[in-house]
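Lecture notes, unit on protein representations.

Consider one protein chain, 99 amino acids long.
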Amino acid sequence: MVQHLSPERVEAMARSGQALIIDVREGSEYRGGHIPRAKHISLGQLLQRLREVPKDRTVVVVCRSGSRSSRAAELLTEAGYRHVYNMSGGMQRWAGPIE
């Protein structure tokens, strides 16, 4: 079961460095604006790039609306990651800074 966090909680975690934020949108979406310091790994590349995702950190996955990131959280959980969260509502609900 995927665990969810509010965008406000994710913003606090991102600001304090408590979590690795992974943006699973496509490249053009990511380049159009993303959470500062978010790592870009599109959903289609996630399984091939798992070595870039440390298992000893809290991971929050983000997409446009929350659907792709929910699937990404499932994939990470199935791959043995324990502290994985989906940001509810995706970037559509994000009110924090964007780069």
